[in-house]
């Protein structure tokens, strides 16, 4: 398992690339919830999500180890982050994406000079292709979450929260493969175990919830939640033991709750966040945290919405 020290080292490694993101607040949500509600704004992060933290830590390590080529199998925030940091380090990168990847995501990868290769529609097809490319080109595949360097990079969000918010009681974190929450858990629980950390998943992507309940990694069939960053079918071999050891609770939110939270954040806080981010706000709004009179930080993990989702949000705006 990674240690606090790995996260502190990661913070130094990535300092020249990432933004130290702001803490926002909402008086309206605070009075609705009966808690002081604060938000860690990773939608202000480079490439629009926290994924650049882990990607930078891992890609720098790969280059230091002699890799001269970088690849990843993801059309989403991870693919954008890997493309961005490889370009910054002047290392060629190819991002393997599904045949049906949407154009705005491909545009972002392209803008950071990443090559795009289309392959199949499932990650089971894309990952072997990325591995093949890595072998052919003296390169390295950058995994999205199940890796100590990725987890340490994501854990820097936890260090920043402890620096920025004194006397925080509870931190609320979205859970996909578990890289973000396992990094934050390690940082927070090794510095101040009295701070609680609660994970949030969509009801239809409850793989970590079920795994915790059964006490072992449990997979679910493919899911279509609007929170596309949380559509994993099972937690990772590296991330899950960390979640199991430290997490205080894991709660679920519905698709309707996620959308309502996104609309609330846009209307009242004037911020555009993506559905994967909105799950933490939904958990607070719909009283899933079991907290009163606490100082709570919800992690807003990213702001990359696609046109379809933006249309849905706008259709509910002002209702
Ligand atoms: C990837 C992602 C998540 C989930 O992170 P994991 O490390 O896979 O748990 C949450 N929100 C956004 C915006 C993401 O891109």
Structure annotation, total helices:
13
Q: Mind telling me the CATH class of the largest domain?
A: Alpha Beta
Share in β-strands: 15-25%
For the termini, the CA-CA separation is 47 Å
Average residue pLDDT: 96
Helix share bin: 40-55%
What is the name of the CATH architecture of the largest domain? 3-Layer(aba) Sandwich
Question: What's the gist of this structure?
Answer:
By secondary structure, this protein is an alpha/beta fold. It contains 13 helices and ten strands. Helix 1 crosses helix 3, helix 3 packs across helix 7 (148-164) and helix 8 crosses helix 10.
Description:
With 319 residues, the chain is of the alpha/beta class. It has two domains: 218 residues, Rossmann fold (3-Layer(aba) Sandwich), CATH 3.40.50.1100; 91 residues, Rossmann fold (3-Layer(aba) Sandwich). It is built from 13 helices and ten strands. The strands form two sheets. It has a six-stranded mixed beta sheet, sandwiched between helices. Strand 3, helix 4 and strand 4 form a beta-alpha-beta unit.
Q: Which short descriptors sum up this protein?
A:
319 residues, alpha/beta, Rossmann fold, 2 domains, 6-stranded mixed sheet, 4-stranded parallel sheet, 10 strands, globular, binds pyridoxal-5'-phosphate
Q: How are the SSEs ordered, and which strands pair?
A:
Blueprint: H1 4-14, E1 23-25, H2 27-33, E2 36-41, H3 51-64, E3 69-73, H4 77-88, E4 93-97, H5 103-111, E5 115-118, H6 123-136, E6 139-141, H7 148-164, E7 170-174, H8 179-191, E8 196-202, H9 207-214, H10 239-246, E9 249-253, H11 255-269, H12 275-285, E10 295-300, H13 307-316
Parallel strand pairs: 2-10, 3-4, 3-6, 4-5, 7-8, 7-10, 8-9
Antiparallel strand pairs: 1-2
The structure holds pyridoxal-5'-phosphate.
The site of pyridoxal-5'-phosphate has 19 residues, from helix 8 and helix 12.
